[in-house]
Specification:
725 residues; alpha/beta; Rossmann fold; 3 domains; five-stranded parallel sheet; 21 strands
Length: 725
């Protein structure tokens, strides 16, 4: 590198770029190309000739090669000028978000070449400790929070990172790199609108290489006008030659300066072409997915060749020195690959490591909550309802730390999220109580992005049904990020998903979908049943470094209890016995738990002594408290506001069935969930659909009277005899 700088002394730059910077950018482009072509050699499984054609053996079969690296690799060769030209204006405080084709972005931002190569091999020394591979590169200390191959997802992550800068008054900028195919995703348009509406410091860079996977752009779009998507949102849009480092550098300088100054986002469409096919080493010529004329046209516009020609003609570089630089970078890549080959593998005992961090911040010291009545007068009592408890926990944490923000549709509404956010917008303002467009995917993704860069956001979806439009961001992104970055990037966020049903609202306003979220590793799921737990669980969730899905049911909002005015936590993963008993056990979630207690009390006169357990946290589930109770009572009823099939009632039943406690059962496990159909609208059908006190008491009576029949015992005995024989 010193020789490069020496050659540039006394020379003027080109088009406003100093000579030493041009030489640095040239070397970085060569480094990226050298790395990509080496990776191509490592992942190639079909032999091709110098023209990119398949090589066949004497029997007419394609000559197969043994891959050294199995991990899918999407190569960036041919697009180097875009990453390098943009990242030349960024520092370690700025953020870059990429997708599946992001080796170039990672290196251009200052990523560690050794860490990248070791990661592609799947080694413990990789940048994601072997948990992510080629498509999940990460290096948070240089502003690279990670990449994702889910098309378009990282666009909203960049919006979230830009929100951090906006909220905290920082001069940081977030850059999102994505392909032309991502512009056909709804999340792209949602993200542009959200960023434009808030004037966020984010630059959207579309690397239009004319193909989405193997489908050319004119087969997917009626018009080739990606840059035109900027116009409806009132932001600048510019189309540039992505193979021309000078055009990229100039456009990026303008867009990044605009973002830093607070003027808002820009969309850059950089036209380019990838040398290799969608994935792997081949060129996609041999399969007829691209034609030779098109390929040769773009190869003649190679970005490295273009820059080298300008540098040589200007006297900044000689042809001989250019060749030396290529050889130096190739040798450097070969060295790191040799190290990666011998690096250690992750130990098999660490398979589950990084699924969750199980790290939480300590409870901060905050002033005691000030409580008032409907007329604004202070009250002395400590009894409040669930909605007020949720609002109180949120407000107290927001008071002590500006990293806590809430975002979502209707968070400034006097009724849309119940009374859980009353007064917060007025107190904290629009930067920390962010009322959003109806853009569930982008809003959820922005929440994930904020969490990646040190904020502790809570997204509120006024109905869990609506949250389904943003579910990929919870299930595919937030749940996986800590694991696939090898524990380097936590996602300390809460998704508050409100169950709001009844009143003849029909199927799409009536779902209780906790089982979906509890199914996925990496997420924690809580459901409070009373005001005390509502506050304590929310504080615990917001202090956790792991993503938590907090499901509160509007049918429980009127449940009141004594709640301390100070901050406190209810430990995640710990259930509680609400009522002690000896005849049978009920495990009941959310609003059904107080109902179960009421049923138990009313059945005392019938000679039933019922034990009621509130799991509070569905995941991780406190299985010990359930198994101990069932071992004592010998009977179990599980009640939940979701469907039985594949749901929470099924999970608890399976936990018991798979334990030694199963031998203590005196009757089959009973489950009380919703009927196996969507929620009806008609009042008589709706009444028969949802669980009420009468139905719950009936199920308790049936279980109390139930025993294993002789026939079941006989079958069991026969099975045992057969096993022993």
């Amino acid at each position: 590198m010193s020789n490069d700088n020496h050659n540039s002394k006394g020379l003027d730059g080109l088009r406003g770029i100093p000579a030493d910077e041009l030489l640095r950018m040239h070397r970085m482009m060569v480094r990226i190309r050298s790395a990509e072509e080496k990776i191509a050699d490592l992942v190639r499984d079909e032999k091709i000739d110098d023209e990119g054609n398949l090589v066949y053996d004497d029997q007419g079969k394609v000559v197969r090669l043994q891959k050294e690296v199995v991990c899918p690799a999407h190569l960036y060769s041919g697009e180097e000028a875009i990453a390098v030209g943009v990242c030349a204006h960024l520092n370690d405080e700025d953020y870059v978000f990429g997708a599946h084709r992001s080796h170039g972005h990672y290196l251009a931002k200052g990523g560690d070449l050794q860490g990248m190569m070791s990661e592609i091999f799947g080694k413990a020394t990789g940048c994601a400790r072997g948990r992510g591979g080629s498509m999940h590169l990460v290096q948070p200390d240089i502003g690279f929070p990670g990449t994702t191959p889910i098309v378009g997802s990282s666009i909203s992550h960049a919006v979230g990172a830009a929100m951090r800068a906006h909220i905290k008054g920082e001069t940081r900028v977030a850059v999102s790199f994505f392909g032309d195919g991502a512009t056909e995703e709804g999340r792209f348009h949602e993200s542009l609108n959200l960023a434009a509406a808030m004037k966020l410091p984010v630059v959207f860079v579309c690397e239009n290489n004319l193909y989405s996977s193997h489908v050319r752009i004119e087969q997917r779009r009626s018009t080739d006008t990606i840059v035109g998507h900027a116009k409806p949102f009132g932001i600048p849009g510019v189309r540039i030659d992505g193979n021309n480092i000078f055009e990229v550098h100039e456009a990026a300088a303008t867009a990044i300066e605009r973002a830093r100054s607070g003027a808002g986002p820009t969309l850059i469409e950089a036209r380019t072409y990838r040398i290799h096919g969608h994935v792997g080493a081949n060129l996609d010529l041999e399969k007829g997915l691209r034609n030779r004329m098109e390929f040769d046209f773009w190869r003649d516009m190679d970005p490295i060749d273009q820059l080298e020609n300008r540098l040589v003609s200007s006297g900044m570089l000689t042809a001989e020195r250019a060749l030396e630089i290529h050889n130096e970078e190739k040798l450097g890549v070969e060295k790191v690959v040799e190290i990666a080959r011998t690096d250690p593998w992750p130990h098999e005992s660490e398979l589950l490591r990084y699924t969750t961090s199980n790290i939480s911040h300590p409870v901060p010291i905050a002033p005691a909550a000030l409580r008032v009545d409907a007329d604004g007068q202070q009250v002395d009592h400590d009894t409040i309802n669930i909605g007020d408890a949720i609002r109180e926990a949120t407000e107290q944490l927001m008071d002590v730390d500006d990293s806590y923000v809430i975002i979502g549709q209707g968070v400034n509404s006097p009724w849309y999220v119940g009374n859980t956010a009353t007064g917060l917008f007025k107190k904290f303002g629009p930067k920390r109580v962010i009322d959003t467009p109806i853009s569930e995917d982008a809003v959820s993704g922005a929440t994930v992005g904020m969490a990646m860069v040190g904020m502790r956001p809570m997204v509120i979806h006024p109905r869990v049904d609506f949250a389904l439009l943003g579910t990929e961001q919870f299930l595919g992104q937030a749940a996986n990020w800590y694991y696939m970055t090898g524990g380097k990037v936590s996602i300390p966020m809460v998704a508050r998903l409100i169950v709001n049903r009844g009143g003849e609202q029909a199927a799409q306003h009536s779902q209780s979908l906790q089982a979906i979220f509890a199914h996925v590793p990496g997420l924690k799921v809580v459901m409070p049943s009373n005001a005390y737990d509502a506050k304590g669980l929310l504080v615990a969730a917001l202090l956790s470094n792991d993503p938590v899905v907090y499901i509160d049911d509007r049918w429980a909002y009127n449940n009141s209890s004594e709640v301390p005015r100070e901050l406190y936590t209810v430990e995640l993963g710990k259930g509680v016995v609400r009522r002690w008993g000896s005849d049978l056990t009920i495990v009941a979630t959310s609003y059904l738990n107080p109902m179960a207690i009421q049923a138990a009390e009313e059945l005392v006169d019938e000679g039933l002594d019922v034990e009621v357990i509130d799991p509070r946290t569905l995941k991780p589930l406190d299985t010990d408290i359930i198994l101990k109770s069932v071992a004592k009572t010998g009977k179990l009823l599980v009640a939940d506001g979701g469907w039985d099939a594949y749901g929470f009632t099924a999970e608890v039943s399976a936990v018991v069935a798979a334990s030694q406690v199963v031998s203590r059962l005196r009757a089959p496990v009973a489950r009380l969930g919703l009927p196996e159909c969507p929620a009806p609208m008609s009042a008589p059908l709706e009444k028969n659909y949802f669980i009420d006190l009468t139905r719950l008491k009936g199920e308790i009576r049936n279980l109390h009277q139930a025993v294993f029949g002789d026939q079941i015992r006989e079958v069991t005995d026969q099975s045992r005899r057969a096993s022993s024989e």
